[in-house]
Design brief:
The protein is 32% helix and 35% strand. By secondary structure, it is of the alpha+beta class. A four-stranded antiparallel β-sheet has the order 2-3-1-4, with helices on one face. It is globular. The two termini are 14 Å apart.
């Protein structure tokens, strides 16, 4: 399953790293590709990882996430 999230608040490479690490820590996430230029993250995950969990992980890092 693939989910695309719009990420608001990223300003640099460190932001991208923090968002990617947060997404990878969600159980069931296989990969997370985060783009600063597009302000989005594409996450490949199993059914055990919900969109709500992905958005919560990003928001815990201080960014806003919405599903595209």
């Amino acid at each position: 399953m693939e989910t695309t999230l719009k990420i608001e608040g990223m300003t640099c490479g460190n932001c991208v790293k923090h968002v990617q690490q947060a997404l990878m820590e969600v159980e069931g996430v296989e990969s997370a590709t985060v783009s600063l230029e597009e302000n989005r993250a594409v996450v490949t995950h199993g059914n055990e990882a919900t969109v709500e969990q992905l958005m919560a992980a990003v928001e815990e890092e201080g960014y806003k996430a919405t599903q595209i």
